[in-house]
Amino acid sequence: MRSKVIAALAVGVMAATSACGGATTDSGGDKVNIAINPWTGYEASAAVIQYLLENELDVEVDTKELKEENAWQGFEREGDDGVDVIVEDWQHTDLRKKYIDDKKVAVNAGTTGNKGLIGWYVPTWMLKKYPGIDEWKNLNKYAKDLETSESKGKGQLLFGDKSYVSNEEALIDNLGLDYEVVVGGSENALIEAAQQSEKQQEPLLFYFWDPHWLFEDVELTRVKLPEYSDDTTQCPTDPKKVKCDYPEMDLETIVSKDFADNGGDAYKLVKNFEWTNEDQNSVALDILKNDMKPEEAAEKWVNANKDVWKKWLP
């Protein structure tokens, strides 16, 4: 989810009418704008926060679908066009520098409790047919097996939405891999490709991330890229020189400075929101695979986990 990732929820602000968002009270009744980033795990977190804001704090919530960079831009906008909370940021260092450090319109509100891990994956059935394909040094051996009509005579590495955090081009170049990044365009494209590979036994190498409910549906194996290290001589941080795997990261909530200062109880609930990868996957699975509306999946989780979310209330 990254150099540019997966997925931001922006929860609208409760601020003075002259600032970004609605009027401020401590007890609720103001509108919170939530921007939904393009992956289901993010939507699951947003749905639970929205459900609790509306039903526990009596706060009106408006949602809008925004890709990650557009959600960050919303921190500078006012009123209904504004964005106040990105519930799940995958360590967008460039955007953090721009909006938190330089423009000072956003602040880090802390962890969501989720641990995020991006990587390259193959369906596990491939390990028998293509021995060692889960080791990066063997990928070129199987490049022809992974060639498609879109991969320009090279092996295909299937990617998702262009807005996702991505080191793929640099990894391919710096590791000398005979592969081409092919953009599928969405989370659904990745899911469908994995499911089809499992069903039809067609080889697939693709970009993906955890937490995600797909791991409950399709057995996947992560390809071992050169291990990540904080030692920049071993793992350069320059985007063009990246040659190591993605690190595990704490997913964090980013909010507008105005929402942090004036959001009252709504801000406190957003800041206190913290659950596990298993929690998020269970709600996401209900939304995408069990055909539940986000609010229905959120209500189901809330009803079963009162001991968890009660701690988030101000």
Automatic annotation (TrEMBL):
<feature type="signal peptide">
    <location>
        <begin position="1"/>
        <end position="19"/>
    </location>
</feature>
<keyword id="KW-0732">Signal</keyword>
<protein>
    <submittedName>
        <fullName>Substrate-binding region of ABC-type glycine betaine transport system</fullName>
    </submittedName>
</protein>
<dbReference type="GO" id="GO:0022857">
    <property type="term" value="F:transmembrane transporter activity"/>
</dbReference>
<dbReference type="InterPro" id="IPR007210">
    <property type="entry name" value="ABC_Gly_betaine_transp_sub-bd"/>
</dbReference>
<feature type="domain" description="ABC-type glycine betaine transport system substrate-binding">
    <location>
        <begin position="31"/>
        <end position="303"/>
    </location>
</feature>
<dbReference type="Pfam" id="PF04069">
    <property type="entry name" value="OpuAC"/>
</dbReference>
<dbReference type="GO" id="GO:0043190">
    <property type="term" value="C:ATP-binding cassette (ABC) transporter complex"/>
</dbReference>
